[in-house]
Amino acid sequence: MKYDNDRLGAALKLYLGTDPLPMHMPGGKRNPDFVSPAFMRDITEIGGFDNLHAPSGLLKDMEDCAASIWKAQNAFLSVNGSSALILAAIWCASILNPDAKILTAMNCHLAVWNALELTGSTIVPLMPAFDIGLPFAGHVSPSDIERVLARDPSVKTVIITSPTYEGVISDTDEIFRITRKYDAVLITDCAHGAHLGLDDSFFGPDAKGDLVIKSLHKTLSSPTQTAVMLRAEGCPIEESLIRRGLDIFESSSPSYVLLGEVSKCLAKLSSKAPELLRPWEDAISYAEQNLTGLRNFRLWQAPVRERSKFVLTGMGDRLFEYLRGTFNIECEASFPSHLIAMTGIGDTVESMKRFCDAVIATDNALDGGYVESRFIARPFPRFRMTLREASRSRLLCEEVEPQYATGRVAGEFIYGYPPGIPLVMPGEVITEDTVRVLTRGDVHLMLGGGRTYKGLIPVLP
Asked: Per residue in 363-395, pLDDT tens?
């Protein structure tokens, strides 16, 4: 479906041009004394502008356009980010198979674990692979997934992340074939891969799954907090159940400011995606060619990876601060072992030249040579209770020194941030390996809710 004239944007412009008196929300009433120009299009679900919870007009056209762009059966928009879509997807899977277990990759985002806590689902851990010399988790193995599904028919949902925060891509084609073989639902968190499937020759094929969730803002031109969920043909979760899930987790007052920008993004992609992507692709190719031969850092490259990200292993925190303080360049994230710099559809060769020149200048200014990265090995978890059971006892938590936590049951999330991947979850038994990870001193740790981790482990009685 072609959506090349930004229908929602055109309708908003036409409507507001008639100077209607808004006797409805929001309370700013387009009064310039209270409302900035960017929010003059902030309306509610008035006549002619559809309803995101039951779209049948302008917003349904946008969803159909998204489904066409990414070759899906259906698409569902979100102005609550990918997190709301992940929550809805897992809730739907738990309704479809209420007593089933969920095979969950242990490098999934915190939103996944929040959903599993809400549903009370039983988790079967799926450990991703790791490569020696890399400080982050690798792909999830299709054979590991098949092994679990073959021996345990009570596992009816599989949740994976591809690409990961660092750009690791798993073989979702093969994984999807396996989950279909065993009648399991595959939910793929593809939040960092909104651009996958738009130009297979450069970025590679799209992620597969019964439900695939993409953040439109991470690499494309839509604003922060916008996302889309794609439903594949043959998905056992019916559209009506997904709409019910979105009723729960999507705002009942969706922002038309955000939806208007989604409309603009989809219109551009629908009309000229390959041409639109070319300057960005040229910028990425330029950086890939110019970030080789560094003395203190190494550009991570692999045969299968997500090309829009640049992961520089080495003294990540030091490079991050140097780029920020000396060159006014703000990168996505840093760790003692590596730095992540994200590109997006708005990047050009000029912006990448500025970035590359700064990295090269920093590399020349530093001494010490390349420091080998250390992998943060998240221990294989053993759960004594479900996340929901543990959360109900959270008020009884006590905080203890790490040496006294072994054998106790964790009462809080402790996760590496960014991106928000738990190293400890409520209901999990603390082991000596767990304590070793938490006391390494080179991991950025937070407690659930974004609170500072101060070295004490919350445990249940």
From this structure: 999 987 888 776 666 789 999 999 999 988 888
Between CA 278 and CA 281 the distance in angstroms is: 5
Amino acid at 449: G
- Given the DSSP bridges, would you call strands 155-161 and 185-189 parallel, antiparallel or unpaired? parallel
Kindly list the averaged pLDDT for each block of 10 residues, start to end, along the chain of length 461: 78 94 93 92 94 96 96 98 98 96 94 94 92 80 98 98 96 98 98 95 96 98 97 98 97 96 95 87 98 94 92 94 97 92 97 98 90 74 93 90 94 80 91 88 78 91 91
Query: Could you tell me if 358 and 288 are in contact, meaning their C-beta atoms sit under 8 angstroms apart?
Result: no
Task: Give how far Cα 100 sits from Cα of 66, 78, 119, 155, Å.
Answer: 31, 27, 11, 6
Q: Give how far Cα 193 sits from Cα of 57, 261, 405, Å.
A: 28, 19, 38
**Homologous superfamily assigned to 277-365:** Aspartate Aminotransferase, domain 1 (3.90.1150.10)
Instruction: Return residue ranges of the chain for CATH 3.90.100.10.
Output: 387-459
Cβ burial of 174 (10 Å; 0-12, 13-18, 19+) is middle
pTM over 0.85: yes
How far from the centroid of its chain's Cα atoms is residue 114's Cα?
Answer: 14
Residues 100-147 pLDDT 10s: 999 999 999 889 999 999 999 999 999 998 765 678 888 999 999 999
Domain 7-270 -> CATH class? alpha beta
